[in-house]
Structure formats: C-alpha cells, structure tokens
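help with this:

***
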Amino acid sequence: MIAIIDYGVGNIFSLYSSFGHIGEEVVLTSDAEVIRGAEKIILPGVGAFGDAADKLRSTGMGGLVLEQAAEGKPVLGICLGMQLLFEKSLEYGEHAGLGLIKGTVKPIAPAVPSGYKIPHIGWNALHFPKDRERSPIFRTIEEGDFVYFVHSFYGADCKESVIATAEYGAELTAAVAKDNVYGVQFHPEKSGTAGMKILKAFCSLGRDEDGRENGER
C-alpha cells in the first residue's frame, strides 16, 4: 500500500486517482501508524513553500517523513513536495525544508533569459545526466520524453542529487534522488503515459518481478 501524506496542502484528487490507473493500492492519510505501515510514501504539495513547511511541522508529518526516510522507506516528493525535501527555500523569505536533499530552492526568473514566461508551465522534455546510471524511477522512460511542469522555483546547488533536467532557457532541475528519497518537479499525474510509467517504477522499487516486496515468500 502506498501512502499519500495529507497535511492540508493542495488538491490531490488527480494524483490519488492516478494510482488506480496503474493498479496500485493507495490511501490519503495523516495517520502516523498508517504511514508507518505503508510500503512507500508520497509527499505532494502545491502553493507556497513557507506555508507548506509550517503545515508539515505543525501536523507532525515532517518529522514522520524524516523518520521513515531514515528507516529506508522509499519517499517521493512531487512538485512542491520535491522542493520541501531540500535544505531551504528562498521563496518569499528564507524557509527551512526537510534537509533530505542538499541544496536550495531558488526562483527561476534570474536563471533564465528575459522574455521567458514565469511560471514555467507546460510540457517539457526530460534529459538524463550522461555521467551516471539512469535512476530506477526512469527505467522505462526515454531520453526526451515529455512531462508536465507548473513552477516558478527550482532546486539549485544540488548537482550531486540531480537525476533529470529540463531546458527552459537554462538547465532546470527536473528530478532529484538521494538513496531512498526521490523528488520530481513535474506532475507525473498530469504527464500522460510517461507520468504513469514513472509512478509505476517508483511503486515497483524493492519488489520482485512478480510484484512481491523483496524478502517476501
């Protein structure tokens, strides 16, 4: 079972529904014991970083994500959820993140040439670093496959964790990973077939080919 953390940020109906399309059992929950019992965790999010970070702390969900990540459970942050994995954000001030990914969330505008619209909205191609092995969440994705973005800030100073980029007048971080923690800036639930493949690959982490978790008999 996959747990989507409910901490009061954003409309996640389409994300929740997408797991049904790929045949995965999913629950939207803020129950700590349900999350601890889940196979994997999804951290969603839309809106402002500071507000979301405050809600993570006030609900206790931030500490729970750190606890479960430390125990080796796969965690996937999506959109703002990815940004919350970073050490800090410079969105409307400076705000502390979860610190699971080294780096800072910065505004796109200074990084791209004038004339590029902000936010970055729409379909863009994924590009993968040529100096490292392809991340397992992209094992069924081809270089140049398109996914859907909506964001005004991006993960910076995180080269060692970048597993995919997108070009928008500059090279922007599209996805990051460190050990069992993953983050995607785009919306897989709005990215058609490619997005469903990415979610399925994340859900399949640690499972045998027949769908069982490694170690099950």
